[in-house]
Amino acid sequence: MSQKHQPIPNGPPPPYPQEHQSDQLEAPATQVPQPRSSNWENGICSCFSQCDTCLMSCCLPCITYGKTQTRMRDPSLRSYSALNGDCLIFGLLSLGALNWIIQTSTRAQMRRNFSIEGSCCGDCLTVFFCPCCAVGQEEMEAQTRLQGDQTGYRMSEGMNYPS
What is the model's pTM? Predict the structure, then answer.
C-alpha cells in the first residue's frame, strides 16, 4: 500500500489569526544574575551599621576574625566555635601587636576568593591602622557574599504562575 506524501513548504509557518495570538503565553524574559562588584560591598566603616559586629570587632576582634575564617570554610557555620584555632592565633599575635601580619594575608585571600580589587600594600595599611574596622568589614563581606550559598533554592523572579 503506497501513501502519497505532501511536500513540506519552505519558510516559516503561516501566522495564526489574531484571536489565537492573544491566548498564547509569552515566555518571561530571563534574568541573568549580575556579577558581584569587584569592590568591597561593605565599606571600612560599614560595621557601624550592625551593632553586634561592631562591638565584637572592637572589643574582641579575635572572635570576629575566627568567625570570619570559619565562615569562609563553611558558610553555614555548623562547625563554628567562638574559641577556635584562628581566634587563638589572632589573639596571641595581638599580644605582640603582630596580628596585622596574619590579617593582611587572610584579607588578601578574601580579595582573591571574591575577585575584589586591591593590593597587598592597601591590605597591610588597612589592617595596621584600622584593625578592628577591617575585621568587621571582612565579616560583613563574608556574610554578604556567602549568604546565597546556604539558602538553598530560591525561585527567580521570572518564574511566576500565570494569573
Answer: 0.65
